[in-house]
Amino acid sequence: MAADPADETQALPQPVPTFGSDSSRRPTLATEAKAFFPFGEEWSFYGGLNFASGKSPGLSLGDAGTVGVGREAQLYGADLYLKWKPVNVAQGYESLALQAEAILRHFASGDGLDGEWDGGGYAQVVAQFARRWFLGIRGDLVGVPSSSVLARTERVGLSLTFQGSEFSRLRAYFEAEHAATPSSAFLPQAQPQWAPAAYLQLEYSIGAHGAHPY
To answer: pLDDT tens-digit profile of 104-145?
Structure first.
């Protein structure tokens, strides 16, 4: 069994790496495809698919050893970015953007464990309601489906951004995270189950930057 997260005298269990086992003979292979589609003058869509394959070094259980060593693993991912922005902004500065990504992971059977799937994803909507102000809401969901090495976790966040220019922005962000009870004996219950957090971010860019179509 893994260490209890409430026991501060022991190291917390780390997430199981998907790749990295026997890398000298089994390198990680990855591929990606991206495409951009302008739907008229107000709408644009940018999406992609990706895939990666390798071997997992397994989940460390501390003194109890490691399980799932050398299992073949694959990642299947998809992402999108959809934006609406009026052509004529003389009377206002409204815009709306949807961004989402989902990843599924497959572990083959091996080292005493059956084959299994897990995954997760996020989605966020950002609305521009004034020339320099943006309001966003985001949801993250990990462990759908859950597996022996990944428990379900939900997170919701709210952001308010002031964009001084194309090269600087100030953002306030608040989130709340909930960790569900794991269905696997390998994973301890996170303590506390609910965890709020707040951030204040300052971002500033210097130098030339490339143009983008959206």
So the answer is: 999 998 877 789 999 999 999 999 999 899 999 999 999 988
**What number of other Cβ atoms are within 10 A of residue 29's Cβ?**
11
Return left, alpha or beta for 151; rule: phi > 0 is left, psi -120 to 50 is alpha, else beta: beta
In angstroms, the CA 61 to CA 44 distance is 47
Size of the chain in residues = 214
What is the pTM for the complete model shown? 0.79
Residues 6+ apart with CB under 8 A from 166: 205, 209
Range in 8-12, 88-92, 209-213 with the lowest mean pLDDT: 8-12
Phi, then psi, of 103 in degrees rounded to 5? -135, 135
Closest to 92 in 3D by CA, of 123, 130, 119, 55 = 130
pLDDT one-digit tens code per residue, 141-175: 999 888 888 889 999 999 999 998 878 999 999 99
Tokens of 142: 């990990």
Q: Are 112 and 139 in contact (CB under 8 A)?
A: no
State the burial class of residue 90 (Cβ atoms within 10 Å of its Cβ: 0-12, 13-18, 19+): exposed
User: 86 vs 45, 96, 196, CA distance in Å?
Assistant: 15, 10, 36
CA distances in angstroms from 147 to 48, 158, 183, 193, listed in the order given: 26, 29, 8, 18
Comparing C-alpha atoms, which of 12, 11, 19, 58 is closest to residue 189? 12
